[in-house]
UniProtKB/TrEMBL annotation, chain A:
It comes from Levilactobacillus spicheri. The lineage of its organism: Bacteria, Bacillati, Bacillota, Bacilli, Lactobacillales. PANTHER family: DNA-BIDING PHAGE PROTEIN, TRACRIPTIONAL REGULATORY PROTEIN-RELATED-RELATED. CDD domains: HTH_XRE. Keywords: DNA-binding. GO terms for molecular function: DNA binding. InterPro entries: Cro/C1-type_HTH (IPR001387), Lambda_DNA-bd_dom_sf (IPR010982). This is HTH cro/C1-type domain-containing protein. Transmembrane segments: none annotated. SUPFAM superfamilies: lambda repressor-like DNA-binding domains. Residues 8-59 form the HTH cro/C1-type domain.
From TrEMBL, chain B:
This is DUF3169 domain-containing protein. It comes from the Bacteria. The chain crosses the membrane at residues 12-32, 38-56, 86-109, 115-138. Keywords: Membrane, Transmembrane, Transmembrane helix. The keyword Transmembrane applies. It comes from Levilactobacillus spicheri.
């Protein structure tokens, strides 16, 4: 699952550590999500979308070949 | 490196120290090693536990260890812990079945009771050491952030 977290985070001049702190997770988790190594739970996805001022739909996109 | 990863690394090495100390204690009893060796092993065992408890409390601020995943800080680490626990549980179950099978075979071969018990003890020791390595390795493999 691709996402635009890194782009939106940089737009808002937030570090991974700061975003992690705001979302209540570790910096490693934000890094893993940004690098498509971990798919967050629905509640974390909503929290991230809220923090980055967007919607879950805008933040996450299905990659090609993923279950439709 | 995340706090959870550092705790896993610390407990891995402390478990190794405890396993070596236990090994020396058992061998000391079997081969009548000098009492100094037994004392050093006991000291090592107590010290390693004390160092682990102190470090977890003071450095990693662990207050309670009732939950099985007390060292995790968020959902990703809990997911990793669940995967690792599941794999280790399977490994341990297979190990215990293997131990029962080996015990049955050795019982049929009619080893002396002491030899039988020592062999089972050695295999149990290897299972514990293997589980420790497996836990550390799997955590490292799954936690790639």
């Amino acid at each position: 699952m691709q996402n635009r977290i890194m782009v939106l985070r940089k737009d808002q001049r937030l570090s991974q550590a700061r975003l992690a702190e705001l979302a209540g997770v570790t910096r490693q988790t934000i890094n893993a999500i940004e690098n498509d190594k971990y798919d967050p739970s629905l509640s974390l996805a909503f929290r991230l979308a809220d923090l980055l001022g967007t919607t879950v739909d805008d933040l996450f996109q299905r990659t090609k070949g993923e279950h439709q | 490196m995340s706090r959870a990863k550092r705790i896993v690394r610390m407990t891995f090495w402390m478990n190794n120290v405890a396993l070596v100390a236990l090994g020396v204690l058992v061998l000391g009893r079997l081969w009548a090693l000098p009492i100094t060796g037994t004392l050093v092993a006991m000291l090592l065992l107590v010290t390693s536990y004390w160092i682990l408890a102190w470090t977890l409390n003071q450095r990693y601020h662990v207050k309670q260890r009732q939950s099985g995943m007390w060292y995790t800080d968020d959902e990703r680490e809990r997911a990793i812990a669940l995967k690792v626990h599941s794999a280790c549980l399977t490994g341990m179950t297979n190990g215990v079945w293997g131990l029962i099978a080996l015990g049955s075979i050795l019982f049929l071969v009619r080893f002396e009771t002491q030899t039988l018990l020592l062999t089972l003890l050695a295999v149990a020791y290897l299972i514990a050491a293997g589980a420790n390595v497996q836990y550390y390795y799997l955590w490292w493999r799954y936690d790639q952030a």
